[in-house]
Amino acid sequence: MNIKRVVLIVMDGCGAGAAPDAAMFGDRGEDLGNTLVNTAVAVGGLNIPTLRKLGLGNVLELAGGEPLPYPIGSYGRLCPLSKGGKDTITGHWEMMGIILDTPFPTYPNGFLQEIIDPFCKAIGSDIIGNYTASGTEIIKQLGREHMETAKPIVYTSADSVFQIAAHEEVIPPDRLYEICHIARNILKGPHAVQRVIARPFLGNGPWDFKRTEHRKDFTLTPPENVLDHLAAAGVHTTGLGIVPEVFEGRGFSDAKRTQNNVEHFEALMLAMESNTELIFVNFEDFDMLYGHRNDPAGFAKALETFDGYTLAIMAKLKPTDLLIISADHGNDPTTPSTDHTREHVPILVYSPILQVGIDYGTRTPFSDIGATIAQVFGVALPSAGKSLIA
Asked: Residue 197, SS3?
């Protein structure tokens, strides 16, 4: 194997059509997701020449361009296998070979008192909220009450998350992180949610409140996976954005908590100048800023900006580099729901020294990505998944 470095990019929320088991995860009727295709239709076409050149327009019928006769990348879709959910943790873990047989707990009617009571006792305060809500909407609804009472806002979503919102001038981020640590220690056993998330915000009133970039995720400890095997073999791995937090920091030689697509791109370009062997980065603005807010125009603009990033990244690739672009789940901004969608994800693979234009079709599971990386670096392959470049 002549590949010396892998750049793995996750386009957060950029699903590629409903998975066969989507109904099991609450996606039915109008909420059945097809994120990239529906976004392209909603805006009258996407201007993404670089991603099309890699084969994205060959695997999906994307308004704004025809399939290319000779794409330079190999392309296809990956179908999720893990039953953990339709979210960031499940998707990223599956990429690295972790297949979950059962879903994580969710709380569509709010958290039980057996959770809330010990949490309030441990933090020395009551809470407000405790229902399912959009993160931007709940601070509009409860932000003023929070500022007047100093009670943290607790809420959840369709995903397995315990989210705590607090105004930074009422509960500073460091204290909010302490509160999240307390929640993480309580949420174990049958209530072991995937993530406890700190959601700081600022502003003076309902329409002025805005979440800041001091978000922090407190995840469950992942089972052994490809990243552990790479670390044991001495492979230098760099994690950017939310990725290290998704794996509880394990397996990474370097980690940088960048907060938005611009920061992710800048950090990725710097990492490509180093001697790191695997760069693993998540670009979450598609999901966080536009999918969850039902904003197809914003989603499309972010895709077109990312297309420019991809061109710059490809220009920086060495002959022995391997670029993999995929996603972790869907988040269709054109559906009535603001939740994630259970979808296939695109898979684009490119290296200057690999055969081009291979149509992978639809493959299962996401762990084909981890198997590919494991093959490159000569470590144990995950139990599920086959290399894309075997």
From this structure: strand
